[in-house]
Amino acid sequence: LFWLKEYHVDGLRVDAVSSMLYLDFGRDRFSPNIRGGREDLEAVEFLRLLNREVRRKHPAALMIAEEATAFPKVTGDPSESLGFHYKWNMGWMHDSLSYVQTPAPDRRYYHQKLTFPLVYAFDEQFVLPLSHDECVHGKKSFLDKMPGAYDEKFSLLRAYYAYMFTQPGKKLLFMGGEFAQFIEWRFSQSLDWFLEDYESHRKMLAFVKTLGALYNAEPALWDDGAGWASFSWVKVDDADRNVIAYTRTSRETGDSLLVVVNFSPSYYQNYRLSIMKPTACKLLLNSDRKEFFGNGQYVPEQVRTSPASYGDKPYSLDMALPPLSALIYRLETLPEENEIPAEVLSFLAI
Q1: Which one in 39, 46, 93, 288 has a CA-CA gap of 20 to 30 Å to 322?
Q2: Active-site residue identified among 40, 66, 218, 224
Q3: Of 41, 66, 87, at which residue does a domain stop?
Q4: How far apart are CA 274 and CA 235, in angstroms?
């Protein structure tokens, strides 16, 4: 409470919450609690009291837990949970970073690292953390974690950032990640701001700015309150080609976005998705654009479905997918053919 009152910090991240919650954490032997379990009941009550008092005295402050287990109800009302506003999604962070660090030919064997985090994505109010912990002590910077040649590192990192910003959960990107610092964070000196003199890093910063602006402008990317109604897989099982596709939908506006991420170094000229309804797609973001230090391969600004069934859906959507890229489209549902007036159909047939 001292930090909130005297220094007016925006909130607190409580570190290593797991070590408080479990009596056997880091111990070979322990005495069970009065219920015979391994939970530290006094620590649980302390955290509830702490969060209750913070919410009462500093209602604008955020309380965030760094908790790495599946302990239930970390976030929510203190009367029904530990009372944190958010919890770091350590599982998403470890799985997704492990996937992109895997050499491209082997990613097909680890596709579940992209899909499994969605199993529990709405169990808590999560933050997707790319924090200081992941770019120190020999772990490499976010850019240097990416395999491949120089240009491929930047391409893959842009695609990964776009994937992160379009997944359910709030975002945390540690300083230096926005312009792709090459070396690890060193607490004893400043960031390598001189890298902004180089085209690749300057354009990475431009990409992150554009991505952040898109995130702020599109409720579909941050309106997670509806749970699974805000997320739907479109392509979940294409492990061999390292591609995933999904939609995000806003509870507030009803608007939907289509996100397609190609984690492969291969170019797919006519990548096909199965779609339930006739749909028009307007391109909002292409991470492969030259203004972002991409290759600038041609991607149509607008695409629409064709009435050719594909998979288990009556419509299909073909699109160009540049290598190591992410595409974000705005979706507009078109009327079914039988919903179009006959006079319009006859005119279109002329």
Answers
A1: 93
A2: 66
A3: 87
A4: 8
pLDDT at 26: 85
The total of structural domains in the chain comes to 2
Q: Is the pLDDT of residue 344 over 90?
A: no
* Distance from chain centroid for Cα 76: 21
Domain that holds residue 231: 227-338
Catalytic residue among 15, 144, 152, 255: 15
246 is a domain residue: yes
Cα–Cα distance for residue pair 248/54, rounded to 1 Å: 33
**Cβ within 8 Å of residue 256, ≥6 positions away:** 220, 247, 248, 249, 250, 330, 331
In a domain, 160, yes or no: no
Residue 122 in any domain: the answer is no
Would residue 199 show up in a list of annotated catalytic residues for this protein?
no
Query: Which tokens in the block code for residue 130?
Result: 């790319």
- CATH number of the domain residue 235 falls in: 2.60.40.1180
Q: Is residue 82 part of a domain?
A: yes
Boundary-marking domain end, from 50, 66, 87 = 87
Pick 319 or 347 by higher pLDDT: 319
66 carries an active-site annotation: yes
Q: Does residue 348 register a pLDDT over 60?
A: no
Residue 214's CB is within 10 A of a number of other CB atoms, namely: 17
Average pLDDT over residues 121-139: 93
Give the CA-trace dihedral at 84, 225, 213, 129, to 10 degrees. 40
Q: Which pLDDT score is estimated for 252?
A: 87
* Cross-strand pairs, 282: 302, 330
Count other C-beta atoms under 10 Å from residue 150's C-beta.
9
pLDDT in tens, 230-255: 999 999 999 999 999 999 999 989 99
Bigger pLDDT: 137 or 199?
199
